[in-house]
Each structure stands twice: as C-alpha cells, then as structure tokens.
Structure prediction request, 261 residues.
Amino acid sequence: MTITYRSYLRLPELLDVQSPLSGVHDELLFITIHQASELWLKLALHELEAAIAKLRADDLAPAFKMTARVTRIFAQLIQSWDVLSTMTPADYLSFREALGKSSGFQSYQYRLLEFALGNKDRALLAPHSHRPELHARLVAMLERPSLYDESHRLLARRGLFIAPEVLERDFGESYRRHDSVRDAWVAVYRDPDRYWDLYELAEELVDIEDSFQQWRFRHMTTVKRVIGFRQGTGGTAGVSYLRQRLDHVFFPELWEVRTSL
Prediction:
C-alpha cells in the first residue's frame, strides 16, 4: 500500500469529526478551535512527560529541547484565541444551546497538563470518574512527581540543599513554596557559570509558566469578550472562575528569586 499525505494523516477521518449541531455558520469555528487546541495539548503532554523522564535521568539537553517546544506550543494556543475572538456575542449565542453541558472544564488533557506542571487537586478527578481508563491516567499523573518536583530532585543531586519535606512530600498534593527551594535557585542564579545547565533549566521553566499564564489570560479575556459574565456552559462561574485560575503559580520560587538576587 502506498502511503500518501491523505492516508498518512488520515485526513478523511480527521476532517469528518467537525460536526456542527446547530447549522449556524460560526459553530464550525468554535469546534475547529477547540479540536485543534486538544491536538496541541496532546503534543504538549507528549513533550512534558518525556522532559520529566529526561530530568529524572539527568539528561538535560534533550529535556531543554522538549520544554522549549512546549513554550512554542503555547504560543500557538495563545494565537488561537485571536481567531476565536472574531466571534461576537450574538454569533455565539446563536448556537450556544447546542453545546448542552459541555465545557472546557471537562478537558482531561488540560487537567493532565496542570498535574504535570504541579497544580494537583484530587477533587478535579470527579468529572472523569465515569471513564475508568481516563480516570486511571489522571490518578497516575496526579500521584507522580511533577516537572517541578523532578527539578527539585535534580537540584538535590547536584549538591544543593532541598529540605526532606520537599523531596519526600505527597506528590498527589499541590506544591507549596519552600525557603530551601528558593535558596537553592538563588545559588544557581548567583553563580550561573558553575550551574549553567540548572540556570538554563530555571529559565526554561519560567518560559513555560509565562506562556501558560498568557494563554490563561487570553482565555479569560476572550470569554469575557464573547459572553461577558454569564455562567459557563458546564456550570462554572465563567470569567470569575478563569480569573481565579490566574492566581495560581506553578514555580513560585523562580519568580521570588528575581527579588532575592
């Protein structure tokens, strides 16, 4: 069998899954943006899980390539909000009822991404309890060390002091900042020549969080632009919920270190 562009990418199947329910012109835009975003999230997870494994193995060079790629993926996700924001409130309301109770809050890939970055919350497993295979994958990601946890372990292996309660914590809980982690990063930033690869790791992590926060912010402003302060389709508080999510910081000590230098 000859492999073609069409067959390799399975284009017939791929292009057949955009299925508007309302017959309204703008629903195809809404579906396309969200399906494309899920594909980017799939790739981001692929890169993050591999980067975590590379950090665990002290193989930093390929890990940096993977984390840099995640940052570029978020650049694409950020731009997608620019396209979606061409939809006016009237456009959206013309097909909103067709969405039923579906919501981006139910995206299991987004939840896996947050768990991989360290924002853990067991309560967020509940929306996926009816899908055992997805629930098991989420639990596994929740309970294993995040990208930041593996960074802490790496710092300790390099001789920098990280408190035992950080290294041996319950990884199923969201990370809380610690003075020993801040002090270790301060040492790295004050002597980058000595700790060059750790210094590069720190900046890669900051790049990821910076781009992730920009994505969250554009999500919030786009939702505000299109639906104002209406309740979200899945029952969330909409804009106010998204604004609260902006307050979460994945790598707090890497932001603190800028003040401590």
Q: What stands out?
A: The chain has a mean pLDDT of 94. The chain has 13 helices and no strands.
